[in-house]
Amino acid sequence: MQASASEHENYIDHGIMAPVGMTTWYPSVIATVNADGKRVIFIKLWTGWKASYLFIDAETGKTEQIFPKSDGWGAYGVQFTPENVVYDTMGSQLVAINVSTRSMRNIGGFDADSMALSYARAKDGTIYAGIYPSATIVSYHPKTKCYINHGPLNDESWPQYLRPLQIDSSGWIYGSIGMKEGQVIGFHPETGARLTFIPEGRRRRGQPELYQGEDGHIYASADGWGLHRLSDGKAIPVDRASKPVVDPDSMAFPDGSRITKTNIPDRKLYIQDAGSQEVREVHFDYTSTGVPIYTLIAGPAGRIIGATGIPMRVWKFDPATGKAWNSGLGGYGGHINQFVRQGKKLYGAVYSKGELLEYDPLEPFDDTRIDLSANPRRVHYSEKAMDLYGRPNAVLAHPDGVHVLVGGKAARVLPGSGLLIYDTKSEECTQLDRSDLIPDQGINAMVALPDGDVLVGTSVHPPTAGTPGFATNALLYRFHLPDHTIKERWSLKPGSPAVLDMVVAADGLVYGLAEPSRLFVFDPSKGTFLHEKDLAVYGKAAGSQAPRCMIIGPDGAIYALFQKAVVRIELETLKHCAISQPPAEITAGIAIQDHRLYFSCGANLFSCSLKQGMDGATE
Question: What does the pLDDT read at residue 619?
Fold first, then answer.
């Protein structure tokens, strides 16, 4: 791997660790034909924060890639029509991609920072898209070229997931809205009539079910509301529903051949040709801007090991050779939020189900489904974990050499955090509920104190699709591991919504970063905050979903990651200086190997020398 270096700014860019991509979470692989009748595969491709459209020749694997001018992922899925046109949202625009001509055009806009989560196609060919987070409907009639933004169909204080959409025989459109409080809405485009069907007192957390039955009717159901048939703008209670209509097979070509499997990260797919019993492998290629690095750690044999997200790829980098390797878990689309090392093995907590993986970097990697892989091996899975620490913001390898702790936030909606305590020797798991801790405080950072207690730093930020709770200030609290109790708690002073990271220095004091970029010093033996210092000159503290941005260096000083710089902080004086200022925003970290500190800027791995002195340090 080619590395680029800047001696003056003290950094080396080791390059992209995982130059891969994946399909969206909803259908975006389409088997079709081009204008000449030749089989072609359309894929909406996610490569980090940049989406593109890929066309693959089913015979040769030759590809053509279209890059939208707008950055971003765009929608989570696409709508394919019989006219061989794919509809998507990208950069707050409804767009149309013509598969035959391999061209793309913008159709009409909507609010910034929005995207479609659902589509429906009316009998007259009109395309309707349901827009997140405002529950807006937009429509486009391809023949008349009429685009209409119909505006929000429902008003809430939280992000609304409008999916799916269904259209009945009378032209009414129905949508399911989640997640904080489920709702089913109705919209009649001709009259502009808008209805909500679930009474306020009967709304529950989650996403109501909505589908078209084989009998042609639209059905909806939700906890607390029951099963209803939707027709002509009315919701009629029923005891039974018709079976759902099976969606068309997007993997089947018009001639009856079909795609049997795709492996987008490894650039392979498999096709069973019509009339053949054999499945053939097709290799293809594409350009990737790289997927973001979520975590990295110093591993055995001098390697730096980390993981990316969407898709999840575990990677290794060898500083001695400059070579990198990456592999996935059967195409898993989530991410390992943080790796920690306990003994010779690494443990990684996974979004969004809160799974815990055990990985031995010295053994062969088993690229298969996350629940079947032998290495990494899933050592913890619980249905409750998603609502307790499905977004695992903090993982701790306890210095007792045995336990690994996982905390964070719910993957969606619910405030607070549970806690997983995993015994690596007995493989027993203890799962604490948020009610066993502090119900409205998420866990954002954990460090072990000299006496073995765990100091927890919290966050009051709500999870995805949630709303702020009553708590406005983050806490520190002392957790006693043997009996799972909270012994003491302290409110951050001055107040902050989140503790981002903490380290325990040789003097027994805890040094932490509070949002957005304030250093604090805490004496756990006295329960007092000793010092605080604003470090906003370096930008916000860096960190991804598990914001590990602090580490004790071999010289005993603290090294911290901010968006603009790697910063060295002296313990006694709190003098600080930037030792590295890379050309891109620092996003995640942090590891030290052979007097070099490793961190990431998006998809790229960077490192800087720790031999930079304190010349020019500021008070």
Answer: 58
